[in-house]
Amino acid sequence: MKTRRIVVPLAAGCLALAACSGGGDDDTAGTGPEAAGWHDEIEGGPLEVGVLSAEGTPGLGILRELADGLQADYEGTDVTLTFANTDARPGIEQRWRSGDPLDVDYGMFDGTNPALTVWADDGALLDLRPYLEQDDPDTGEPWLDRFSPAVLEFMENPSDGGIYGVPSELSLHVLFYNAGLFTELGIEPPRTWDDLLAANTALQAGGVDPIAVTGLFEPYMGMWSDHLWLRTVGYDKARAVLTGGEGHITEDPGFLEGLEMLQQLRDDDAFLTGFEGTDFTAAQAQFFQGDAGMILMGSWLVSEMADVIPADFELGVVAFPTVEGGAGDQGAVMAAPQVISIAAESEHIPLALEWARRLTSVETQTRRAEEIGEVSAVADVPSPPGIPGIDQVIADAESLEPRDYGITQSPAMEVIYPEIARLLFGEQDAQQTLERLDEGLRRVHGN
Amino acid sequence: MHRAAQRRIIIPFLLPALLLLGVFFLYPLVRTVDISFTEWTRTGSSSYVGVENYTRLFDDPGYVNALKNAFLFTLVGGCMLFPVAIAIAWALNQRIHGERFFRFVVFAPVVLSAAVVALMWKFVYHPTLGLINPALEGLGLGALARTWLGDASTALPAVAFTTVWHGIGIWVVLLSAGFERLPPDVLEAGRIDGAGEWRLFRSVMLPMMRDLFRILVVLWIVQSMQAFAFVFIMTNGGPYGSTDIVGTLMYRVAFERYEFGYAAAMGVALVVIMLVVTQIVNKVMKRDELQY
Fold this sequence. Notes:
The complex is a heterodimer.
Chain A: H1 2-21, E1 46-51, H2 58-73, E2 78-83, H3 89-97, E3 104-106, H4 118-121, H5 129-132, H6 152-155, E4 166-178, H7 179-185, H8 193-205, E5 209-212, H9 218-232, H10 235-242, H11 253-267, H12 280-288, E6 292-298, H13 301-304, E7 315-318, E8 332-342, H14 349-359, H15 362-372, H16 390-396, E9 399-402, H17 413-424, H18 430-445
Parallel strand pairs in A: 1-2, 5-6, 8-9
Antiparallel strand pairs in A: 3-8, 4-6, 4-7, 4-8
Helix pairs in contact in A: 2-14, 2-15, 9-11, 9-17, 11-18, 17-18
Chain B: H1 2-36, E1 38-40, E2 46-48, H2 52-57, H3 61-92, H4 99-107, H5 114-124, H6 132-138, H7 155-180, H8 184-192, H9 197-208, H10 210-225, H11 229-234, H12 246-255, H13 260-285
Antiparallel strand pairs in B: 1-2
Helix pairs in contact in B: 1-13, 3-7, 3-10, 3-12, 5-7, 8-9, 10-13, 12-13
InterPro entries (chain A): Bact_solute-bd_prot1, SBP
Protein name (chain A): ABC transporter substrate-binding protein
Signal peptide (chain A): 1-21
């Protein structure tokens, strides 16, 4: 009886709390200031901005200077830079769900990925189109015209035509190679699959593992199958099958062809010795230490590893090799713009817009390219000098396709990359991988 | 009259603890059960789906695999932990020279954060740049070298070993307290009867500490079945799910796939499974009170 007297009210209280907290608040306004005069409405105030640069990096230094400039120009402004990388996303997205979003944030929108248009569809993000269409006070041209047309599909929501994000940088997936080593061994940069196989042989003859890859982060192993399928199947078809649940992976021979090419790399011992137990940071460091000749990675590699790149290291980049006779997209490059969005609920929307405008200015983007090696999605910004060859990759790209087909944010993630890991680890061959992929994809897509 | 007055005094003392228990344990538990009957969107809208999340659970090969790995982790980690912890606690109870130093060495890892320890061991296990494989090769045992975290057969034991290495100090302290509480007259009687230290340990100390072992085993099961940090940082469930446990799977389902209701159902099912397992272990290891 005594116990009941305590437990019953306590449980009732808990249930009441639970009932009160359910559901979340859908009352998002989605309105900002008048587009025509938004710049005149900027007032100082607190502004919380998501950033991807870690503490102590030169990238964060540039953003701090940007924040200082905003604080100096608008009295009462107090900019807080909040680290918003992949690991921080769960906590930050929980803040969005609970009605306490960052004013400016990364990772909230990608027009090419249905999993990342939901915030815009639910009215949590500000439609930037009206503001982007206004003339920029610095250039006299519409703000929108700054951006490369190739990234517009990432900025625009297909469902309503609104623009819910602007790219602060562009990550391209490219094949990095040790240019000094290649010159020394007389190897041509691999532009085709046959070039890549020839480079592997030559590197092995020179006592160097051909390709650095991590075995402890499956999506990075999956970058190889992603790119091979881009060449042997094509982006639209591969995306439809892998994450769209349209059709089956056994129906297009390009999938098996890509897996067989991957198996060939494995059978040729093309990957870094002990890659299975090597973390991605270590794999990247080993590439720069000359333990491996090539690494397939995003263009963020150079800024991320700046501290460990030897001063005399000669870097080169090429697009992922083309596959002769492949039925897919031979000129496409996989890309991921880092898009910033503005919370519709922000109390300082004009200030947030000004942050986005300054961050995407040619001046800031040029600094970021030159000082930290970021590739820009803004026109007239030079390619980063620390990534020789990236300008050629951009110039030659017939299209920019969203990286990973949206796999990492879909239930297919639990199926695809583990099976690719099994293939690379020698647990199964290409045909068995295809069969297991087929079985798993049918299960998760229910088709 | 006296009792009623006592009760009135007790309640204010209990209230802070009850409040904390309610806010940090009961409320999250009730809320988790509540969420497990719903389906959520990424932006936070939810709808009631009844028991659908629970019916999905045991047809999900990912969850079954994670449960299997969680049990394996508990078993393998327990086998690594208890014999060594008992041996160390016994040794430290022998009043050996430099006992304080050894206590410090054994306890030191406990004060390191799990993230630091996990990253450190990740590099120790590195196949070519780490410490283990080069050491094995140096000793002429190169055939034993593995890719450790990259090998489906060694990854789970490797992570379990790291977890045990990090936390063994606490278990040694608990077991040491158990050894110290053994009645000295009983041990003395054993010695007078001619029992050696090993015989004394095996036939007197261990049986007398059986209740303590039972509690510690239950605690280990509860702790290890909920393991998360070491697996998340060292392997994130890989290679190909061989170290995936319920904690890491729940995290991915909730925060990468945004299926909060399904993740909550996984958590609730784990609580029920743990309650059942600990009850069984409790019953199996329980015995009549020892009279001495």
